[in-house]
Amino acid sequence: MGDWSLRETLSTASGTVRWDRFGDPGGEPVVLLHGTPFSSYVWHEVAPALAAAGHRVHVWDMPGYGSSGMYADQDVSLGVQGEVFTELLAHWGLREPSVVAHDFGGCVALRAHLLHGARYRRLVLVDPVALEPWGSPFFRLVGEHSHVFEQLPAALHEALVREYVTSASHAGLRPAALDALVRPWTGERGQAAFYRQIAQADQRFTDDIQPLYPTIDLPVTVCWGTEDTWIPFAKGQELAALIPGARLRPVPDAGHLVPLDAPARLASEVLTFLAR
Fold this sequence. Notes:
With 276 residues, this protein is an alpha/beta fold. The protein has helices at residues 46-52, 78-92, 104-116, 137-144, 146-149, 154-166, 175-182, 187-199, 204-207, 233-242, 258-261, 263-275, and strands spanning 8-12, 15-23, 29-33, 56-60, 98-102, 123-126, 220-225, 247-251.
């Protein structure tokens, strides 16, 4: 677990997806979804805790993210990610796993469930992109002018990504963690991929499903960092109120990157929920 790398691959219409799983092969399955501009590395502290508790933990990098395939004109939209996730669940043979999803991963998990028939035993949403409006002024600026930002000198681009990723944390990221999150977005391929995924972000992918939240019929917990400056805590309250029976669990002193700001607290919340 110290060297975070994903050993398995699946070829999809949106490119090669890298994935891995660990823990007790007979344990209850749990699938972890990352957000943007991150990768499965955000779970590198939470995943071992879930595995140690007896769960079979599945992680993956979305197409266009982390160690998965990145290429020109790639469709990495939230619409495609929901389809890829549904395909992955079938590939893994998981008929009803528990799912823990952060940021964009929350929208991906919700779309897979509400639009593509994916079934979950339980669902944990961690500071998800789920309600309009979303997208910071910086995010919208980059999306509207991605062709300009793609031409930034490499050093300036990396500095921009580092500052952007850092702003998602309230506690402050350790240098090794920051390096791991930034590294996939460096180099010619990574730089183009970073602006590609922002350019393809579109609120219509949450608008599609937001009216369906009151129809969700499974146990849901919403965990939210109280110091999230990307998506304020009030959105967590709003989302929990829309999903029947959903529990809202504030995570004190954590920003948007709850899995890295408060991994022990988040793992505890998830394990308690899964055991209910």
